Amino acid sequence: MRFIRSHILICSGSNCQLRGSLSIMHALEAELIKKGLYQEIRIVETGCLGLCEKGPGMVVYPEGVMYTRVTLADIPEIVEEHLLKGRFVRRLMTQPADGEDKLTPLNMSPFFIKQKRVVLKNCGLINPESIEEYIAAGGYQSLAMALDQYSPDQVIQIVKDSNLRGRGGAGFPTGRKWDFTRRAEGTEKYLICNADEGEPGTFKDRLIIEGDPHLVLEGMSLAAYAIGADKGIIYVRGEYDLSIKRLEQAIRQARESGLLGRNILGSEFSFDIDVCLGAGAYVCGEETALIESIEGKRGEPRLKPPYPAQAGLWGKPTSVNNVETLANIPSIIEHGAEWFRSIGTATSSGTKVFTLTGNVVNAGLIEVPMGITLREVIMEIGGGIPGGRQFKMAQTGGTSGGCLAEEHLDVPMDYESLSQYGSSLGSGALLIMDDSHCIVDLTKCFLRFFVHESCGQCTPCREGTAQLYNIVDKISKGRAAGSDIDLIEKLSRTMQISPLCALGQTAPIPVLSAFQYFGPEVRAHLRGTCPAGICNMKGALANADS
Amino acid sequence: MKSMEELKLIRERMKVTNGARHDQRQTQIVIGMGTCGIGAGARNTLLAVMNELTLLDLDNVSVTQTGCMGMCEREPLLEIRTIEGESYLYAHVDAERARRIVANHVQLGQPMTQWIIKRGQEAERWANEKRSLHLSTNPVD
Question: What is the pLDDT of residue A446?
């Protein structure tokens, strides 16, 4: 086989594609041909490198030099200087040079050094459209090993021992969920991969699928083997064009290679996967609404119990797992439960993939060990707040998560610690806001989303979200009284216990936390002033009781 | 696919192609590609190195280029850095010398002493010095 001296990995995740990474790839190809270097260098499309805000990004190996914000005009220089003469194009580089002006390796740059990549281990390193590259990176070894050496019960036991909890938001222990499904009566069982990522600001599942679709398929196969399902469904958002394309392509490749279908790897185990497209309703990320949607009905949550593990899709026992949860499974089987528990904290094992958005320098995709502090994530990996502004608020867990203030920057990011402060890891969205934003205005935005997305089936959610919005709207216009704040509190407590599903139950969380941690700012609105100068106070009423 | 054996075969086959995608944790061949190097025929040296690596089916090697090392009259210069951290700098490496260096030094571990002008830590330190000098004169935005 011909010796290739350099591989250029170009991010073809959807964020970088929107910034033109594909035309850059074609221009690079043309330039290499022009300079007669085409036979020596390989261009590879790869998954998300993480620095979405600075896209399009590319990494040149073997040096491991990362270039960001590459434009078409930069291509001749990269080819002439770096690929021909070996001189790095420093103005496009992200990693700093250390004291002696020597290059810091890619994996030592501040953006990567604090990260721990388990789910994203191949993301940005392999071509997601090639099953051979996935296999070369150790792919499908865990499946082969499990089919060869472990019984389904043993697989469940390993996952239980690993302490892996669901990464979609609720954090239910995965091993227990599988155990319930395995023990449920009936021979026909289903495995559903929930890729209906609807939380605003969350795009981790999308980038995991785009960067390493076979990892998700392998995780699904292992899950199906454990629970005894021979049919899997990936419920993915209809807008995720590239995810759908890569999933369908990966499924086709796996079928052709005999890694999906009948008697996988010569064993008794048979399993196949279908892709089912969602139509964009936020509530369909809730597992029972999702199941209703697959069955062709209107996406509304079911009354629980029975849980899907007893009666799910078509009334059969079903396990619904998030993309990231499933993407953890091959590594857990490969390295063992103890290895997984050694990452993270005592009660929250493993890593968490976050999408870092808002007022932060390195907005993008990161994977960090559980228990890392918000400060490390925002100030070190995230590179701090841009434009010389001050940090104001971080909302963890997406729009249904809590709003944390500066005093919470040292809270460890794990299930237990965040819930102590009324927040959660949720879906892995991290929204960072600087001091130019008004907390009341932000809260109003969050609530408008819930009003729009409430499916309307149960009253506390349908009416509750609308009333919460109305009251906060009143506050933002300076027309509220102190009693309105009490009303929000009361309404929120009711909503946290009465709706059918988590949509309504979690909708008050951003409001409650914002009002608790930013009390003085909220109360200023009762006096007709918005400290950040965002809210329009023209019609404000003077209030004595604030 | 019928078995784990076949998975292993694909893995082995792909190792060669993916060899370049590592952060320099293998034997490195560094070729001087400054204007002086190119003028002295360093492109031919590079192509000869790659041809020989292909012929000998060596995949645990990385090939990179570097700028002017400050010894223009001895170009093309070629440096071998082993995993153990040993460094050997060869001078006047034309295509023929390049082939023999790859075959003897890289494959068999037998340095071609007659063409080596610096070796050991000294050569590495010297090369690094030159490299950082070169980097620091590059315009930085």
Answer: 96
What's the mean pLDDT in B46-69? 89
The CA distance from A43 to A64, in Å, is 14
For B78, residues 6+ apart whose C-beta sits below 8 A from its C-beta are B29, B30, B31, B32, B45, B49, B89, B90, B93, B98, B101
What is the amino acid identity at position A23? Answer: S
Residue B7: the pLDDT is 86
Q: Across the interface, which of A1, A2, A84 has its CB nearest the CB of B33?
A: A84
CB A389 within 8 A of CB A161: no
CATH number of the B24-135 domain: 3.40.30.10
Residues of the domain holding A312: 131-340
Residues A281 and A411 in one domain: no
Which of A392-401, B56-65, B121-130 shows the highest mean pLDDT?
A: A392-401
Q: What is the pLDDT of residue A28?
A: 97
B65, A84: Cβ pair inside 8 Å? Answer: yes
In a domain, A207, yes or no: yes
Query: CA of B86, closest CA in chain A: separation in Å?
Result: 19
Q: Taking residues A184-192, what's their average pLDDT?
A: 95
The answer to whether position A264 is within a domain reads: yes
Domain residues of chain B, as ranges?
24-135
pLDDT at residue B123 in the model:
55
Residues of B in contact with A266 (CB under 8 A): 2-3
CB < 8 Å from B in window 76-105 of A: 84-88, 90-91, 97, 100-103, 105
What is the average per-residue pLDDT within A110-130? Answer: 91
Same domain, A367 and A458: no
Amino acid at A505: Q
Least confident interval from A43-47, A256-260, B131-135: B131-135
pLDDT-based confidence at residue A84 (cuts at 50, 70, 90) = very high
Reported confidence tier of residue A94, pLDDT bands at 50, 70, 90? confident
In-domain check, residue A274: yes
**Domains: count for chain A:** 4
Long-range contacts of the stretch A63-69 (C-beta < 8 A, 24+): A63/A88, A63/A103, A63/B24, A63/B64, A64/A105, A64/A106, A64/A107, A64/B23, A64/B24, A65/A93, A65/A95, A65/A103, A65/A106, A66/A93, A66/A94, A66/A95, A66/A106, A66/A109, A67/A92, A67/A93, A67/A94, A68/A92, A68/A93, A68/A94
On chain A, the residues whose CB falls within 8 A of the CB of B139 are 90-91
CB A397 within 8 A of CB A424: yes
Residue scoring higher pLDDT (A76 or B2): A76
A144 touches B at CB < 8 Å? yes
- Nearest 5°: CA angle at A109, between A104 and A113? 125
Are A307 and A285 found together in one domain? yes
Whether A5 contacts chain B with CB within 8 A: yes
CA distances to A182, A442, A530, A532, A534 from A537, in Å: 58, 16, 8, 12, 9
**ipTM confidence:** 0.80
Same domain? A419 vs A504: no
Torsion from C-alpha of A483, A487, A493, A495, nearest 10 degrees:
-170
| Residue A235 belongs to some domain of the structure | yes
Chain B residues close to A62, C-beta within 8 Å:
20-24, 28, 62-64
pLDDT tens-digit map of B74-98: 999 999 988 888 889 999 999 999 9
Q: Which chain B residue lies closest to A256 (C-alpha atoms)?
A: B1
